[in-house]
Write a structure and sequence with these properties.
The protein has helices at about 15-25, 75-90, 105-120, 130-140, 155-175, 180-195, 205-210, 245-250, 285-295, 310-320, 360-365, 390-405; strands spanning about 5-10, 30, 40-45, 50, 65-70, 75, 95-100, 105, 200, 215-220, 260-265, 270, 305-310, 325-330, 340-350, 350-355, 365-375, 410, 420. The chain is of the alpha/beta class and about 425 residues long. It folds into two domains: about 5-90 and about 205-420, Adenylosuccinate Synthetase, Chain A, domain 3; about 105-200, Adenylosuccinate Synthetase, subunit A, domain 2. The strands form four sheets. Strands 9-7-5-2-10-1-11-14-18-19 form a ten-stranded mixed sheet, sandwiched between helices. Strands 12, 13, 15, 16 and 17 form a five-stranded mixed sheet that branches. It has a two-stranded antiparallel sheet with strand order 3-4. Strand 3 (about 40-45) and strand 4 (about 50) form a beta hairpin. The chain is globular, with a radius of gyration of 22 Å. The termini are close together. Bound molecules: guanosine-5'-diphosphate, 6-O-phosphoryl inosine monophosphate (IMO) and magnesium ion.
Length: about 425
């Protein structure tokens, strides 16, 4: 059985949680590999509606081992309350394993996220304020504290004391903010350590074993390609790689063991936070889609910005991720729409282009070139086979496939697990 990576193809919130939950029914292992609790993955299945920030969306399938990989930064308080929430709903979390190499989000990371955003004033990124950027910065700067450090309380205190001294200098001397107390943080993290210790493992060894035994392993991405620190709309993006390559590093699985990469895309675009979005709709059409689809952030509740499907960005995303197939979500949102638009190219300073510019300044100048298609005007939420879709919906799907230059193997027509049209297998 193969290894499948599932990634967000746009600016996040494409419906990764839903698709992972659906495919996990036949999986053995599901691994979250990047981001932190900035992610918010919604799952609606027979057990209820859940918003997951750190626990992999495979947790609802009773035989699936769920792994939080080394590439995730973990806020232990958020993880513990998520485990409690799941247990309260009768979901077994004993099949959860946490990498001993994953970094921790510390209270000073959250404070720094807040202060850095404030200091950027009009140029703020619009982060989720979960401390994600500062936690990944500390990881790269070799100032991080990891889950394995929780298992050595003497060592933890020494390291925390050294790191906190630097942060407190920053708080008091640069930001004019009060310092944080070592004892308070240490005591809290010792409590977290006691709770989390049984879950902390050498997860890349578990994954190696699962792959050797030919089990089906799914890597669950967070965020989306256009938020990638290298290929996204830098600096308006996140701090770890949401790309398929990030799956190898963030789970500890070598590239030659990946078999397929499934990209999740909405039939339109959304973005939370700041930064360029060439097809953004500032008019009543955008407002209408936001309300029909209830496009408000899963993690922060912020209204999501809405735009038409951007095939320039989608082709770019297919390429940098090496997608082997695509799942389109939210097809049902267009049930009552008249005319639909797809952006096939951009106009940049009088020239028609079909690449995704690196520079934010250039992206902001890009004007979308649209083609139009009629909507279908009937509800499709009960449809389960491609041939039962209205002809216009079939045509729309096929056109998206053509302009993306990638095979659409799944289409979702509602938020619940069973609201899926399987065109071809994805594994
Ligand atoms: P994720 O971060 O990629 O997991 O996505 P989010 O959970 O943040 O946002 C996706 C939203 O779309 C959630 O509210 C899902 O319940 C919902 N959703 C997913 N697929 C569909 C679909 O095909 N139709 C509709 N109407 N909603 C969907
Ligand atoms: P899921 O996994 C949508 C966005 C934030 C902000 C930028 C940086 O649910 O798709 P950060 O807190 O990461 O430093 O914020 O990235 N962002 C997301 N947008 N979905 C997400 O995750 C996101 N995670 C971060 O809104 O623009
Ligand atoms: Mg989300």
């Amino acid at each position: 059985m193969p290894v499948l990576v599932i990634v967000g193809g746009q600016w996040g919130d494409e419906g990764k949680g839903k698709v992972v939950d659906q495919l996990a029914e036949n999986a053995d292992v599901v691994v979250r590999f990047s981001g932190g609790d900035n992610a918010g993955h919604t799952v609606i299945n027979p057990l209820g509606e859940f918003k997951l920030h750190l626990v992999p969306a495979g947790i609802f399938s009773s035989r699936v081992l769920c792994v939080i990989g080394n590439g995730v930064v973990i806020n232990p308080a958020v993880l513990m309350s998520e485990i409690a929430m799941l247990n309260k709903s009768g979901v077994d979390t004993t099949r959860l394993a946490i990498s001993n190499r994953a970094h921790l989000v510390m209270p000073y990371h959250i404070m720094l996220d807040e202060l850095e955003e404030k200091s950027k004033a009009g140029k703020a990124l619009g982060t989720t304020k979960r401390g994600i950027g500062p936690a990944f910065a500390d990881k790269t700067n070799r100032l991080g504290i990891r889950t394995c450090d929780l298992l050595d309380k003497v060592g933890l205190k020494e390291r925390l004391s050294m790191v906190l001294e630097g942060k407190n200098t920053l708080f008091t001397k640069v930001y004019g903010a009060p310092p944080m107390a070592l004892e308070e943080i240490y005591t809290k993290y010792c409590e977290y350590a006691d709770f989390l210790a049984p879950f902390i493992k050498d997860t890349e060894m578990l994954l190696d074993e699962a792959i050797r035994q030919k089990q089906l392993v799914i890597l669950e991405g967070a965020q989306g390609a256009l938020l990638d620190p290298d290929f996204g709309t830098y600096p308006y993006g996140t701090s770890s790689s949401p790309l398929s390559a990030g799956g190898c590093l963030g789970a500890g699985i070598a590239p030659n063991r990946i078999d397929s990469v499934l990209g999740i895309f909405k039939v339109y675009c959304t973005r939370v936070g700041n930064g360029p979005m060439p097809t953004e709709l500032m008019d009543e059409t955008g407002q209408m889609i936001r309300e029909i689809a209830h496009e408000y952030g899963t993690t922060t509740g912020r209204p999501r910005r809405i735009g038409w499907f951007d095939a320039v960005a989608a082709r770019f995303s297919c390429r940098v991720n090496g997608l082997t197939s695509v799942a389109l979500t939210r097809l049902d949102v267009f049930d009552t729409m008249g005319t639909l638009k797809i952006c096939t190219h951009y106009m940049l300073e009088g020239k028609k282009i079909d690449y995704f510019p690196a520079s934010v300044a250039e992206l902001e100048k890009c004007q979308p070139v649209y083609e139009e298609m009629p909507g279908w005007g009937v509800p499709i939420t009960e449809v389960r086979r491609f041939k039962d879709l209205p002809k216009q919906a079939q045509k729309y799907l096929k056109r998206i496939e053509e302009v993306m230059q990638c095979s659409v193997n799944m289409a979702c027509c509602g938020p619940s697990r069973e609201q899926v049209i399987q065109l071809k297998t994805v594994i």
